[in-house]
Design brief:
Blueprint (H helix, E strand, L loop, with lengths): L5 H4 L4 E7 L2 H14 L5 E5 L6 H11 L14 E5 L4 E6 L6 H6 L10 E6 L5 H7 L3 E8 L5 E7 L8
Parallel strand pairs: 2-5, 2-6, 4-5
Antiparallel strand pairs: 1-7, 3-4, 6-7
Helix pairs in contact: 2-3
Bound molecules: adenosine-5'-diphosphate (ADP) and magnesium ion.
The site of magnesium ion has 3 residues, from helix 3.
Length: 163
């Protein structure tokens, strides 16, 4: 098997910017993303507290076929779900302080070709994520002065929600 190069793992092929006017727009974005996401992808949700990471993630899990309630993984760090087409791991790394903790919970085992992982607060461990995966899709959400949200999506390939 070919060894991953650092260059490859930091590659961004496509970057797009979207404005979400309200929660309904978060739901629409989740619908579009759900049609594009594939098993093996690592979806990084980034942005400060209150930005809308959990809101978008919950919509996305439902769009991907997860039924029932979605619990916060803040304490469990990773929670598994059965999606329509593949298994999904929902993670929140807010409480993670160093890479050793990730090692101790076997975090790398959740990066699998047959499932998808969604990681809230991914920006706090981004160097680690870049090292272990070359399939990062980075979704940054920023609240603006009004209710709206500015979203930047960086894809490692040429997928896009805007075209
Ligand atoms: N697109 C949006 N437009 C307006 N309000 C939003 C949007 N997304 C989320 N919110 C609201 O912002 C608050 C924080 O959202 P949440 O998803 O919990 O943020 P985070 O997980 O990033 O801390 C919630 O009250 C939520 O209803
Ligand atoms: Mg949250």
């Amino acid at each position: 098997m070919e060894k991953k190069s650092n260059e490859g793992s930091t590659m961004i092929k496509n970057e797009e910017k979207i404005v979400l006017k309200n929660i309904e727009d978060s739901k629409k974005l989740a619908e579009k993303l759900s049609l594009l996401l594939k098993k093996g992808d690592v979806v990084c949700l980034e942005g400060s507290i209150g930005a809308g990471k959990t809101t978008l993630t919950s919509f996305l899990l439902h769009e991907l076929g997860v039924e029932g309630d979605i619990n916060s993984p803040t304490f469990a760090i990773v929670l598994p779900y059965e999606g329509r087409d593949f298994k999904i791991f929902h993670s929140d790394v807010y409480r993670i302080e160093d890479e050793e903790e990730l090692y101790n919970i076997g975090f790398e085992d959740y990066f699998r070709d047959d499932s998808l992982i969604l990681i809230e607060w991914a920006d706090t461990i981004i160097d680690y994520l870049r090292e272990i995966s070359d399939r990062l899709i980075r979704i940054n959400i920023e609240a603006s002065h009004d209710e709206s949200r500015n979203v930047t999506i960086k894809w490692y390939d040429d997928r896009s929600v805007t075209c």
